From TrEMBL:
Residues 6-120 form the Tetrahydrofolate dehydrogenase/cyclohydrolase catalytic domain. The lineage of its organism: Bacteria, Pseudomonadati, Pseudomonadota, Betaproteobacteria, Rhodocyclales. Belongs to the tetrahydrofolate dehydrogenase/cyclohydrolase family. Pathway: One-carbon metabolism; tetrahydrofolate interconversion. This is Bifunctional protein FolD. GO terms for molecular function: methenyltetrahydrofolate cyclohydrolase activity; methylenetetrahydrofolate dehydrogenase (NADP+) activity. Keywords: Amino-acid biosynthesis, Histidine biosynthesis, Hydrolase, Methionine biosynthesis, Multifunctional enzyme, NADP, One-carbon metabolism, Oxidoreductase, Purine biosynthesis.
Length: 285
Protein backbone atom coordinates (compact mmCIF):
# COMPACT_ATOMS: atom_id res chain seq x y z
CA UNK A 1 0.00 0.00 0.00
CA UNK A 2 1.22 3.50 -0.75
CA UNK A 3 1.52 5.87 2.19
CA UNK A 4 -0.48 9.05 2.55
CA UNK A 5 1.79 12.07 2.02
CA UNK A 6 1.64 14.71 4.76
CA UNK A 7 1.60 18.04 2.91
CA UNK A 8 3.61 20.41 5.12
CA UNK A 9 3.58 23.12 2.49
CA UNK A 10 -0.24 23.30 2.39
CA UNK A 11 -0.55 23.17 6.17
CA UNK A 12 2.08 25.90 6.54
CA UNK A 13 0.22 28.07 4.03
CA UNK A 14 -3.11 27.64 5.90
CA UNK A 15 -1.48 28.57 9.19
CA UNK A 16 0.28 31.59 7.70
CA UNK A 17 -3.01 32.85 6.28
CA UNK A 18 -4.53 32.59 9.75
CA UNK A 19 -1.66 34.64 11.22
CA UNK A 20 -2.51 37.78 9.21
CA UNK A 21 -5.54 38.71 11.33
CA UNK A 22 -3.58 38.17 14.57
CA UNK A 23 -0.76 40.37 13.27
CA UNK A 24 -3.16 43.18 12.33
CA UNK A 25 -4.98 42.96 15.67
CA UNK A 26 -1.61 43.38 17.40
CA UNK A 27 -0.60 46.22 15.09
CA UNK A 28 -3.76 48.08 16.11
CA UNK A 29 -2.60 47.78 19.73
CA UNK A 30 0.81 49.18 18.76
CA UNK A 31 2.50 45.77 18.94
CA UNK A 32 3.13 44.75 15.33
CA UNK A 33 5.13 41.53 15.87
CA UNK A 34 8.81 42.00 15.07
CA UNK A 35 11.53 39.40 14.56
CA UNK A 36 15.28 40.06 14.50
CA UNK A 37 17.43 37.44 12.82
CA UNK A 38 21.16 37.51 13.54
CA UNK A 39 23.53 35.74 11.16
CA UNK A 40 27.26 35.43 11.67
CA UNK A 41 29.32 34.31 8.70
CA UNK A 42 28.95 33.67 5.02
CA UNK A 43 27.52 30.15 5.02
CA UNK A 44 25.33 30.02 1.91
CA UNK A 45 22.68 27.68 3.28
CA UNK A 46 22.31 29.86 6.40
CA UNK A 47 21.96 32.96 4.24
CA UNK A 48 19.11 31.30 2.34
CA UNK A 49 17.39 30.24 5.61
CA UNK A 50 17.68 33.75 7.03
CA UNK A 51 16.33 35.36 3.88
CA UNK A 52 13.38 32.93 3.86
CA UNK A 53 12.62 33.75 7.51
CA UNK A 54 12.62 37.50 6.91
CA UNK A 55 10.48 37.18 3.74
CA UNK A 56 7.99 34.94 5.55
CA UNK A 57 7.57 37.60 8.25
CA UNK A 58 6.89 40.31 5.70
CA UNK A 59 4.35 38.13 3.87
CA UNK A 60 2.09 38.04 6.96
CA UNK A 61 2.58 41.72 7.81
CA UNK A 62 5.20 41.29 10.52
CA UNK A 63 8.21 43.52 11.02
CA UNK A 64 11.54 41.79 10.52
CA UNK A 65 15.15 42.80 10.36
CA UNK A 66 18.30 40.85 9.65
CA UNK A 67 21.65 41.67 11.17
CA UNK A 68 24.61 40.12 9.40
CA UNK A 69 28.19 39.96 10.66
CA UNK A 70 31.39 38.71 9.06
CA UNK A 71 32.52 35.32 10.35
CA UNK A 72 35.51 36.87 12.16
CA UNK A 73 33.42 39.34 14.19
CA UNK A 74 34.28 39.85 17.88
CA UNK A 75 31.61 37.95 19.89
CA UNK A 76 31.32 40.97 22.21
CA UNK A 77 29.86 42.98 19.32
CA UNK A 78 27.18 40.34 18.79
CA UNK A 79 26.42 40.19 22.53
CA UNK A 80 26.06 43.98 22.62
CA UNK A 81 23.64 43.82 19.67
CA UNK A 82 21.58 41.14 21.45
CA UNK A 83 21.37 43.41 24.52
CA UNK A 84 20.08 46.22 22.28
CA UNK A 85 17.50 43.91 20.68
CA UNK A 86 16.41 42.71 24.15
CA UNK A 87 15.56 46.33 24.97
CA UNK A 88 14.00 47.21 21.58
CA UNK A 89 10.19 47.52 21.86
CA UNK A 90 9.74 46.86 18.12
CA UNK A 91 11.35 43.43 18.49
CA UNK A 92 9.38 40.55 20.05
CA UNK A 93 11.54 37.68 18.88
CA UNK A 94 15.30 37.24 18.47
CA UNK A 95 16.86 34.37 16.55
CA UNK A 96 20.60 33.81 16.26
CA UNK A 97 21.19 31.46 13.35
CA UNK A 98 23.19 28.38 14.37
CA UNK A 99 25.83 27.09 14.03
CA UNK A 100 28.06 29.98 15.05
CA UNK A 101 31.75 30.16 14.07
CA UNK A 102 34.15 28.21 16.31
CA UNK A 103 35.42 31.21 18.31
CA UNK A 104 31.92 31.80 19.71
CA UNK A 105 30.64 30.37 22.98
CA UNK A 106 27.25 29.29 21.65
CA UNK A 107 25.75 28.73 25.12
CA UNK A 108 26.73 32.24 26.22
CA UNK A 109 25.08 33.73 23.13
CA UNK A 110 21.85 31.79 23.66
CA UNK A 111 21.87 32.74 27.36
CA UNK A 112 22.12 36.43 26.41
CA UNK A 113 18.76 36.40 24.59
CA UNK A 114 15.88 37.63 26.78
CA UNK A 115 13.82 34.62 27.85
CA UNK A 116 10.59 36.28 26.67
CA UNK A 117 12.06 36.98 23.19
CA UNK A 118 13.66 33.54 22.76
CA UNK A 119 11.46 32.41 19.86
CA UNK A 120 13.82 29.52 19.11
CA UNK A 121 13.22 28.13 22.60
CA UNK A 122 16.95 27.44 23.04
CA UNK A 123 17.54 29.42 26.27
CA UNK A 124 18.15 27.08 29.22
CA UNK A 125 15.09 28.50 31.01
CA UNK A 126 12.84 27.67 28.05
CA UNK A 127 14.44 24.23 27.59
CA UNK A 128 13.76 23.59 31.29
CA UNK A 129 10.14 24.73 30.99
CA UNK A 130 9.64 22.33 28.08
CA UNK A 131 11.27 19.49 30.04
CA UNK A 132 8.86 20.18 32.91
CA UNK A 133 5.91 19.96 30.51
CA UNK A 134 5.10 23.65 30.83
CA UNK A 135 6.62 25.16 27.66
CA UNK A 136 6.66 28.88 26.83
CA UNK A 137 8.54 28.72 23.52
CA UNK A 138 8.81 25.39 21.71
CA UNK A 139 11.74 25.01 19.27
CA UNK A 140 10.34 25.61 15.80
CA UNK A 141 11.10 22.36 13.97
CA UNK A 142 9.72 19.95 16.58
CA UNK A 143 6.82 22.37 17.17
CA UNK A 144 6.05 22.13 13.45
CA UNK A 145 6.15 18.33 13.60
CA UNK A 146 3.72 18.35 16.55
CA UNK A 147 1.40 20.66 14.58
CA UNK A 148 1.46 18.14 11.73
CA UNK A 149 0.45 15.37 14.15
CA UNK A 150 -2.31 17.57 15.59
CA UNK A 151 -3.73 18.62 12.22
CA UNK A 152 -3.50 15.06 10.90
CA UNK A 153 -5.27 13.81 14.06
CA UNK A 154 -2.38 11.44 14.72
CA UNK A 155 -2.82 10.20 18.25
CA UNK A 156 0.46 9.89 20.14
CA UNK A 157 -0.69 8.61 23.52
CA UNK A 158 0.68 5.13 24.21
CA UNK A 159 2.42 4.93 20.82
CA UNK A 160 5.98 3.78 20.28
CA UNK A 161 7.92 6.80 19.04
CA UNK A 162 11.53 6.65 17.87
CA UNK A 163 13.59 9.77 17.23
CA UNK A 164 16.87 9.40 15.32
CA UNK A 165 19.03 12.36 16.30
CA UNK A 166 19.90 13.94 19.62
CA UNK A 167 20.56 17.59 18.72
CA UNK A 168 19.45 20.47 20.92
CA UNK A 169 17.64 21.96 17.91
CA UNK A 170 15.53 18.95 16.94
CA UNK A 171 16.17 15.54 18.53
CA UNK A 172 16.05 16.43 22.23
CA UNK A 173 13.08 18.84 22.14
CA UNK A 174 11.24 16.43 19.80
CA UNK A 175 11.70 13.65 22.35
CA UNK A 176 10.44 15.89 25.17
CA UNK A 177 7.34 16.87 23.20
CA UNK A 178 6.56 13.24 22.42
CA UNK A 179 7.07 12.30 26.08
CA UNK A 180 4.76 15.14 27.13
CA UNK A 181 2.16 13.80 24.65
CA UNK A 182 2.22 10.38 26.28
CA UNK A 183 4.26 8.44 23.73
CA UNK A 184 6.83 5.80 24.68
CA UNK A 185 9.98 7.42 23.37
CA UNK A 186 13.33 6.02 22.29
CA UNK A 187 16.07 8.43 21.21
CA UNK A 188 18.61 6.89 18.83
CA UNK A 189 21.50 8.29 16.85
CA UNK A 190 23.50 7.23 13.81
CA UNK A 191 25.72 5.04 16.01
CA UNK A 192 22.94 3.23 17.90
CA UNK A 193 23.50 -0.52 17.96
CA UNK A 194 20.81 -2.42 16.06
CA UNK A 195 19.20 0.84 14.99
CA UNK A 196 16.78 -0.99 12.69
CA UNK A 197 15.66 -3.13 15.65
CA UNK A 198 14.51 0.08 17.33
CA UNK A 199 13.06 1.80 14.29
CA UNK A 200 11.04 -1.27 13.24
CA UNK A 201 9.09 -1.01 16.48
CA UNK A 202 8.16 2.62 15.85
CA UNK A 203 4.56 3.65 15.23
CA UNK A 204 5.99 7.16 14.88
CA UNK A 205 9.49 7.60 13.44
CA UNK A 206 11.18 11.00 13.34
CA UNK A 207 14.45 11.14 11.39
CA UNK A 208 16.72 14.06 12.26
CA UNK A 209 20.13 12.58 11.71
CA UNK A 210 21.48 14.70 8.84
CA UNK A 211 22.41 11.81 6.55
CA UNK A 212 20.82 11.49 3.11
CA UNK A 213 18.42 8.55 2.70
CA UNK A 214 19.65 7.03 5.97
CA UNK A 215 16.27 5.47 6.80
CA UNK A 216 15.40 2.73 4.34
CA UNK A 217 12.19 0.79 3.76
CA UNK A 218 13.43 -2.28 5.66
CA UNK A 219 13.84 -0.13 8.79
CA UNK A 220 10.22 0.91 9.18
CA UNK A 221 7.14 -0.78 10.54
CA UNK A 222 4.34 -1.21 7.98
CA UNK A 223 1.81 1.59 8.48
CA UNK A 224 4.15 3.80 10.56
CA UNK A 225 4.05 7.59 10.49
CA UNK A 226 7.46 8.66 9.12
CA UNK A 227 8.57 12.25 9.61
CA UNK A 228 11.67 13.39 7.75
CA UNK A 229 13.39 16.41 9.29
CA UNK A 230 16.53 16.13 7.14
CA UNK A 231 17.48 18.57 4.43
CA UNK A 232 20.59 17.30 2.65
CA UNK A 233 22.09 18.56 -0.56
CA UNK A 234 23.19 15.80 -2.95
CA UNK A 235 26.25 16.17 -5.23
CA UNK A 236 23.89 16.93 -8.15
CA UNK A 237 22.48 19.91 -6.20
CA UNK A 238 19.09 18.31 -5.47
CA UNK A 239 17.65 18.27 -1.96
CA UNK A 240 16.87 15.04 -0.19
CA UNK A 241 15.84 14.06 3.31
CA UNK A 242 17.13 11.57 5.84
CA UNK A 243 14.54 9.07 4.60
CA UNK A 244 14.63 7.09 1.37
CA UNK A 245 11.27 8.53 0.35
CA UNK A 246 10.56 6.35 -2.69
CA UNK A 247 11.25 3.11 -0.80
CA UNK A 248 9.51 4.08 2.45
CA UNK A 249 6.45 5.38 0.60
CA UNK A 250 5.50 1.75 -0.07
CA UNK A 251 5.72 0.67 3.60
CA UNK A 252 4.73 3.67 5.73
CA UNK A 253 1.15 4.65 6.54
CA UNK A 254 1.93 8.38 6.36
CA UNK A 255 5.12 10.14 5.35
CA UNK A 256 6.45 13.69 4.97
CA UNK A 257 8.23 14.63 1.72
CA UNK A 258 11.43 16.69 1.32
CA UNK A 259 11.05 19.40 0.21
CA UNK A 260 7.50 20.37 1.14
CA UNK A 261 7.22 18.56 4.46
CA UNK A 262 8.71 19.72 7.74
CA UNK A 263 10.74 22.59 6.22
CA UNK A 264 7.86 25.03 5.58
CA UNK A 265 6.45 24.21 9.04
CA UNK A 266 9.67 25.27 10.78
CA UNK A 267 9.46 28.85 9.53
CA UNK A 268 5.72 28.89 10.18
CA UNK A 269 6.23 28.03 13.83
CA UNK A 270 8.90 30.71 14.10
CA UNK A 271 6.24 33.20 13.01
CA UNK A 272 3.79 31.61 15.47
CA UNK A 273 6.27 31.97 18.35
CA UNK A 274 6.96 35.60 17.47
CA UNK A 275 3.24 36.39 17.28
CA UNK A 276 2.72 34.61 20.63
CA UNK A 277 5.52 36.71 22.14
CA UNK A 278 3.83 39.90 20.91
CA UNK A 279 0.43 38.71 22.18
CA UNK A 280 1.90 38.04 25.62
CA UNK A 281 3.46 41.50 25.67
CA UNK A 282 0.20 43.12 24.55
CA UNK A 283 -1.63 41.24 27.33
CA UNK A 284 1.01 42.31 29.85
CA UNK A 285 2.35 38.84 30.66
N1 LIG B 1 20.04 26.26 12.48
C1 LIG B 1 19.34 25.19 11.99
N2 LIG B 1 18.08 25.18 12.49
C2 LIG B 1 17.99 26.27 13.29
C3 LIG B 1 16.92 26.80 14.06
O1 LIG B 1 15.81 26.26 14.14
N3 LIG B 1 17.21 27.93 14.74
C4 LIG B 1 18.44 28.52 14.69
N4 LIG B 1 18.62 29.63 15.41
N5 LIG B 1 19.44 28.06 13.98
C5 LIG B 1 19.21 26.93 13.28
Amino acid sequence: MTAQIIDGKALAEDLRQSFKARVEALAEKGQRPGLAVVLVGEDLASQVYVRNKVNACHAVGMHSEKIIYAAAVDPEIVLKKIAELNADPAIHGILVQLPLPGHFDEKAVLAAIAVDKDVDGFHATNVGALAQGNPRFIPCTPYGVMKMFEKGRIDLSGKEAVVIGRSNIVGKPMALLLINAGATVTVCNSRTKDLAGHTRRADILVAAVGKPRFVTADMIKPGAVVVDVGINRLPDGKLCGDVDFAGCLEVAGQITPVPGGVGPMTITMLLANTIEAAERKAAGN
